Amino acid sequence: MQKSGKSWVSPWLSGSVPVLIVAAIPALIFVGVLLYFTGWALMFSFTNLELYGRKATEWSFVGLDNYERLFTRRGFLESLWTTLNFTFFSAIIGQSILGFTLAAVLRNMYGGVRSVLEVSLMLGWLLPDIVAAFLWSATTSKTGLVNQLIVIPLGMEPVNFLNDYALPVVILANIWKGTAWSYLLYSAALDNVSKEVVEAAKVDGANAWQRTRRVILPIIKPHIGTNLLFITIWTFTYFPLIYALTGGGPGSKTEVLSIFLYKQSFGIGKLGYGSAISVAMLVIVGVMSLFYLRLLKEPE
């Protein structure tokens, strides 16, 4: 905006430029460090660098060999498919829908039941991943709670769920672990929905589903997009709970990209190939983030 041929600047901003510059220094340093390590990963993805051996010090550039290997050898595409399934069912379907449902149901509920449910949600979120993995491993083992309370009383043989249904167990564990975030975000979003608007829709004859779909969801759309953005990124790159629970097994049934990257980089020491995997993951996450950001953009 210009006025009398001169650029208009807020007096507050013009008097605080030195303060703003100083305040921006930590952020600039943080961004610089991120770009520094990203640049090294990108460079190493074009090399045959290894963790140990001769190529740990005498590495050389191999062009696009590592990226070609991603699509011509077994491992990457299988892990990508596993990661997409894990992300879709545990984050987009599981955490988001369950978090919204709980937020909507508990919105007008008070007393002990709500407190118990909220404490249970927060407990899963706050527990360290290694502890959560131990609990789920013990619960789904042949002598665990699921077999003792459900399978054996029904007259069936005990099931080793982590061996026979590894990916569903990991998905359920991650839903239990991460739903609290979606619940808290959707609870705050629903609290900002005007009760007068909802009551007006009710007076107009809209049932509960119609009020949710046509009134509430459009109002909290930015919150939905923000939640999906964060939980998709977190889940797509998630490592600790899965590795502690299954180690990517049995076989490669739960070998998501983060575990595949870890095994290639530090298991067999192929740092160059691991760098290519990390760059590919960065690109995929970037594309998904742009998709969500487009959803968040208000139509002109």
Automatic annotation (TrEMBL):
This protein's UniProt keywords: Cell membrane, Membrane, Transmembrane, Transmembrane helix, Transport
Domain ABC transmembrane type-1, residue spans: 80-294
Entry annotated with the keyword Transmembrane: yes
One Pfam family, short name: BPD_transp_1
Chain segments annotated as transmembrane: 12-37, 86-107, 119-138, 224-245, 271-293
Subcellular location(s) of the protein: Cell membrane
Record InterPro entries: MetI-like, MetI-like_sf
Membrane topology: Multi-pass membrane protein
Principal localisation: membrane
UniProt-listed PROSITE patterns: ABC_TM1
Top-level taxon: Bacteria
Homology family: Belongs to the binding-protein-dependent transport system permease family.
PANTHER family, per the entry: BLR7065 PROTEIN, SPERMIDINE_PUTRESCINE TRANSPORT SYSTEM PERMEASE PROTEIN
The name this protein goes by in its record: Sugar ABC transporter permease
Species of the source: Marivivens donghaensis
